[in-house]
Amino acid sequence: MSTFPHGFLWGSATAAAQIEGAGSDDGKGDSIWDAFARVPGAIANGDTPAVAVDHYRRMPADVALMRELGLDAYRFSVSWARVRPDDGEVNPAGLDFYSRLVDELLEADILPWLTLYHWDLPQSLEARGGWANRDTAARFRDYAVIVHEALGDRVTHWTTFNEPLCSSLIGYAGGEHAPGRSEPRAGLAALHHQHLAHGLATRALRERGAQQLGITLNLTNAVPADPSDPADLDAARRLDAIWNRAFLEPLVLGRYPVDFLDDVRDHDFASLILDGDLETIAQPIDFLGVNHYHDDQVSGRPLPEGTPPGLRPTDYATGNPFVGSEHLTFPTRNLPRTAMGWEINPDGLRHLLVRLGREYPTLPPLYVTENGSAWDDVVEPDGSINDVERERYMLDHVDAVAQAIAEGADVRGYFVWSLLDNFEWAWGYDKRFGIVRVDYDTQQRTIKRSGHAFRALIASQRASIQ
Ligand code: FCB
Q1: Which pLDDT score, from 0 to 100, does residue 466 have?
Q2: Residue 186: which CATH number?
Q3: Which residues line ligand 1 at a C-beta cut-off of 6 Å?
Q4: How many domains does the chain fold into?
Q5: What pLDDT shows up at residue 303?
Q6: Is residue 2 domain-resident?
Q7: What is the C-alpha end-to-end distance of the chain, expressed in Å?
Q8: Cα–Cα distance between 73 and 203 in angstroms, integer?
Q9: Which residues are the active-site residues?
Q10: What's the CA-to-centroid distance between 229 and ligand 1, angstroms?
Q11: Assigned domain for 64 exists
Q12: Could you tell me the residue range of the domain that residue 453 belongs to?
C-alpha cells in the first residue's frame, strides 16, 4: 500500500448543476444548462438537470454519507443562478442553502472546498452575451464577493473556475456544452474573459482575507500517435498549447504561449487582451487543482478509414472541433477503456503531475481535484454494486499519485469524481461516475464497492500516520 504525506486530503467532488436539482425552487433562476437542456437533441435522452439527484433537499443525508465514507474534504460548487439569478438582487434563500451545507460539513469535520464556477452561468447573463462579453468578468467578481461575504467566515479554500477549457472553448466554439454556440471568436473571448474573471475575483477575495485561493484546470498529456512523424509531433505541440499552456501560462507566467497566439491569429485574439489584463490574470494562487481522466493521443494526419467517430479531445456528443483543434485527429491506442470510451492509463496521471512541477517551478502545491471513471453498473439481486472496474481505476490512479509524490511532485490531496451518480452534462444520466449509486426513480443512495474501497483506503491512511 502506498503512503501519503501527513495532512494529505482525501475527498470527493460534485458540481451544483449535476446534483442539486430544485431547478427553479426558492428563487433560483435558469442557468445556461437549464436553457441548453431545452434545445432538442442537445442532451442525451432529452435529460435535464431540473431534478438531478435532489441534493438540494437531501443535503443533510448526503453529508452524513460523506461522514460515513470518512472524507476529509468535499469539493462542491455554488450555483450562481441560485445566488444571484438575474444580476440584480441577491437571493437570500440561495445563499442560505450553501451556508447550511458548510455548517453541516464543518459539523461532520469535513473541509468545505468551494468552487465558484462549475459551468452554470445564469441565463440572464448569457442573454447579454455570456462569457463572450467582457463585462461578465466583472459580474463574476461581484458574485464571488457576495459568496465570500456570506461564507468567508467558515470556508478557507476557494476555487474560482472548474475546467475553463470546457466552459469557454467547448461551450462557445465547440457547441457541445452550454450555451451551445459554435463561434470560434466567442470561444476565444470566453477563454480570455474567464481568465480575467479568475484574476479579478482572486484579487478581490485576497483583499477580503481569503486564505487559500486557486483554480482547477483539466490538463492532459498530448501524446504523438507516431513520435517519429513530424506531423504527429506538431499535432501534439498544438494540442498541448490549446489544452494546457493557453491556461497555465497566462495564470502562472502572465503571458499567452506564442504558438497558441499564432494558431488562433485568424480570429484576432490579441485584440481581446487589454492593457493590464495579463497582470490581473497572473495573481498569485495558493494551489492548482488538476483534473485528469485520460491522456490524448493525437495525430496530424487523417484517421484511417473506418475509425469510429467522436474521438475528439472532449469525447462529447457530436465532436465538433473547437477553435485551435482543427486538423487534429485522435486515433485510439490499444488500451482498455471506460464506459465514456476514455482510455485507462494511470501512468499518465503520474507523468502529468511530475511534469507540471518540472515545467513550472513556480507552481503552488497541486491537488488532484477530479479523477474517476464511468461504468455500466449492475445492481446485484441483493442490491449491492460490485463495481470492480471503478475500484481498480481509482486505486491504480491513487498509486500513480503516490509515485508522482515519490518522484518529487508536490501533491497534497486527491478528490474522487464523483461522490454520487449524477447529471453528466451532454450525456445526461447515461454515464455513472459515482462511488455511491443513485436510483433515479427513488433517489435512494447505495455505497458501491468502490465507495467501500475508498473508505477503507482513507481509514488505512489515517491509521498509518497515527
Ligand atoms: C469533468 C467535469 C465534471 C465531470 C467529469 C466527468 O470534465 O469537470 O463535472 O463531468 O468531467
Answers
A1: 66
A2: 3.20.20.80
A3: 15, 18, 162-163, 166, 218, 291, 370, 417, 424-425, 433
A4: 1
A5: 76
A6: no
A7: 16
A8: 25
A9: 163, 370
A10: 32
A11: yes
A12: 9-464
